[in-house]
TrEMBL record:
<dbReference type="InterPro" id="IPR005801">
    <property type="entry name" value="ADC_synthase"/>
</dbReference>
<protein>
    <recommendedName>
        <fullName>isochorismate synthase</fullName>
        <ecNumber>5.4.4.2</ecNumber>
    </recommendedName>
</protein>
<dbReference type="InterPro" id="IPR004561">
    <property type="entry name" value="IsoChor_synthase"/>
</dbReference>
<dbReference type="Pfam" id="PF00425">
    <property type="entry name" value="Chorismate_bind"/>
</dbReference>
<keyword id="KW-0413">Isomerase</keyword>
<feature type="domain" description="Chorismate-utilising enzyme C-terminal">
    <location>
        <begin position="107"/>
        <end position="373"/>
    </location>
</feature>
<dbReference type="InterPro" id="IPR015890">
    <property type="entry name" value="Chorismate_C"/>
</dbReference>
<comment type="similarity">
    <text>Belongs to the isochorismate synthase family.</text>
</comment>
Length: 394
């Protein structure tokens, strides 16, 4: 593990590359970075405890964990405050050219889904989430603060975040270069407030329609879909099972609710619990480690799904499908799943979206679903994704 102490962020650096996590109408925004921890080889329990123990009154750690085994991550120890939605002045509308590459292509992604369905039919796998990317080169380069302003204004997901994936510079400013993770996730992994715990997993989804009648029909169909309800149940069962190790009074509705974003309907189940008496309560960061990755981004069984993801996707994910959030010195905090997100690095941008594959999944419908999810961040960043044209896999 590497860590380094830093100094106050300059106002110019903060304006260009915000370090924040927003939930609801408020955003926690960093004014100073005191230290950055990096865990390239995996984030263990000791790492989580070290981060929380280092936080003084009024400080938080803004954290991103990757999808990979052991969840390598980065944590910025910061001082800041809760604020209303940020707005920055920008120099008018910037005309940009976007070179967009889809990989895998829609046809290749449909073939991946078919391969996953074959493994599910063999019986060793029940569900796996497979993703695809859009790689974008923008001229001139996109500016992180512009994207964050659009996310905070349009709110395509409740949880808006901006976390540099490199340490703060030696002069205390956030680096002017290097990758930064931005996004607006609709999915709460875990929130801890004292001994109260909340999770809201999403699994099972369908693209929305601009036609109100068709949109309502799709929502009703999702709630009645045996395939989507089964996919959703895998996720809820896994989270409840994990919480039983540290929680009591675990409550959740018998059937999922509908949750909508601008492009997708989701099935959602709010789960509430309390830390068990006598338990030296795990922090929000430790709870995030305990729950991550859920079947909402991985699959069932976990090991078999991860093996299929590695085989079919390769190294697409990196920071995507991980989790991002904050924790304070009392252990309270909030983490969202890293979906509806982008990694920005200079003139390059990568978007990622996944879909849960279970028995009965249709490869072409999964292409459409991931395309709708990719459209959320594409719209925010200002370009139109290429059409999802494909032929049924042979």
């Amino acid at each position: 593990m590497n860590d380094r102490e830093t100094a106050p962020i300059t106002p110019a650096a903060l304006a260009a590359r915000p370090l924040l996590f927003a939930s609801g109408e408020q955003a926690y925004v960093a004014d100073r970075v005191l230290r950055t921890w990096q865990t390239p080889d995996g984030a263990d329990v000791a790492w989580a405890d070290e981060v929380v123990d280092a936080l003084a009154e009024g400080e938080r750690a803004l954290v991103a964990l990757s999808f990979a085994s052991g969840a390598p991550g980065i944590a910025h120890q910061v001082a800041g405050s809760e604020r209303a939605l940020l707005r920055h002045e920008h120099d008018g509308v910037v005309e940009r050219r976007y070179d967009v590459t889809a990989f895998p292509t829609p046809a290749e992604y449909a073939a991946m889904v078919t391969a996953a369905l074959e493994r599910i039919a063999e019986g060793s796998l029940h569900k796996v989430v497979l993703g695809r990317c859009l790689d974008v080169v923008s001229t001139p380069p996109l500016v992180p603060a512009e994207i964050i302003d659009r996310l905070l204004t349009t709110r395509p997901g409740r949880y808006v975040f901006s976390v540099p994936l490199v340490p703060a510079a030696g002069d205390g400013s956030l680096p002017g270069e290097g990758a930064i993770l931005v996004g607006a996730s609709p999915e709460l992994l875990v929130r801890r407030e004292g001994r109260s715990i909340a999770c809201t997993p999403l699994a099972g989804s369908v693209p929305r329609s601009d036609d109100p009648a068709e949109d309502a029909r799709r929502a009703e169909g999702l709630q009645a879909s045996a395939k989507d309800l089964a996919e959703h149940a895998f996720v809820v069962e896994a989270i409840v099972h994990a919480l039983k190790d540290v929680c009591v009074e675990i409550e959740y509705p018998a059937t999922p609710e509908l949750l909508s974003t601008d492009t997708v309907w989701h099935l959602a189940t709010p789960i509430h619990a309390r830390l068990a008496p006598g338990v030296d309560g795990p922090s929000a960061l430790r709870l995030a480690q305990l729950l991550h990755p859920t079947p909402a981004v991985g699959g069932v069984p976990t090991a078999a799904a991860n093996a299929v993801i590695a085989d079919l996707e390769g190294d697409l994910r990196d920071w995507f499908a991980g989790c991002v959030g904050w924790v304070d010195g009392d252990g309270d905090g909030e983490f969202a799943i890293t979906i509806r997100a982008a990694v920005m690095d200079g003139d390059r941008l990568r978007l990622f979206a996944g879909a849960g594959i279970v028995a009965g999944s249709d490869p072409l419908l999964e292409v459409r679903e991931t395309g709708a999810k990719l459209a959320t961040m594409a719209r925010v960043t200002g370009f139109t994704p290429p059409p999802d044209t494909t032929e049924p896999p042979g």
